[in-house]
Amino acid sequence: xxxxxxxxxxxxxxxxxxxxxxxxxxxxxxxxxxxxxxxxxxxxxxxxxxxxxxxxxxxxxxxxxxxxxxxxxxxxxxxxxxxxxxxxxxxxxxxxxxxxxxxxxxxxxxxxxxxxxxxxxxxxxxxxxxxxxxxxxxxxx
Amino acid sequence: xxxxxxxxxxxxxxxxxxxxxxxxxxxxxxxxxxxxxxxxxxxxxxxxxxxxxxxxxxxxxxxxxxxxxxxxxxxxxxxxxxxxxxxxxxxxxxxxxxxxxxxxxxxxxxxxxxxxxxxxxxxxxxxxxxxxxxxxxxxxx
Lengths: 141, 141
Known about the structure:
Two copies of one chain form a homodimer. By secondary structure, chain A is α+β, with helices and mostly antiparallel strands. The first copy, chain A, has one domain (5-140): Trna Endonuclease, Chain: A, domain 1, CATH 3.40.1350.10. Chain A is built from four helices and eight strands; from the N terminus they run αββββαββββαα. Chain A has helices spanning 5-25, 71-84, 118-124, 128-140; strands at 29-32, 46-49, 54-62, 66-70, 87-94, 99-102, 108-110, 113-117. In chain A, the strands form two sheets. Chain A has a five-stranded mixed beta sheet. In chain A, strands 4-8-7 form a three-stranded antiparallel beta sheet. In chain A, strand 5 (87-94) and strand 6 form a beta hairpin. The longest helix of chain A is centred in the N-terminal third of the chain and has 21 residues, at 5-25. Chains A and B meet through helix 1, strand 1, strand 2 and helix 2 of A and helix 1, strand 1, strand 2 and helix 2 of B.
């Protein structure tokens, strides 16, 4: 609460670095994007791959129970993921909670874009183990 | 010649942006990495994919006829590419020339790392059309 804009940016960067570390620890190579505005082309926060699975990830940390996402941000994530050949994923971590991973169709639409709240995340989103386990399972069947 | 360090960095960034634009124009989604030092994990300059082909690219612009590459830089490119499931590529553009794309085994080893000079690039490297054409060809056979 009451974080300055630069404080929120720093919090977002810290969350991105933590998620990148988690991905490397679990057999993925993961890369952080240059700041937005670097080129006019869409870019997610993180791209990760392990030779079989590829994820384009928009990464959010929230100290409130609902996080709002711009429509443009999500449509750019979708465009990048489709062109790249990756699954589009919104990764969100509420304060003192684990990461949740949610696909675009499972986000809640709002008049201005999309939202994900804590209850929705608990119901619809995947944990990290489920994210990589679910797709690992699919490959075995 | 005689460019300051910040001048060389700006030249490198401009080259990266140009290559990203070229990739998007040819059906790839491409993303620039955050500055090195952002995390302790390896990161190429650019990752690109089109649903079939994935490239991890170290991107160089050179105003001299020989470009030297640190051993560490190339081993990190190789590590990232292997974990991600991408082809490791060094992209180099000499002044007033087209892009050349060269794989790690085709670089020239030096006591301190690797080098690529203009003659080597003309002999061993692929043009952009060959890079995407060659692998497209492979997919059809």
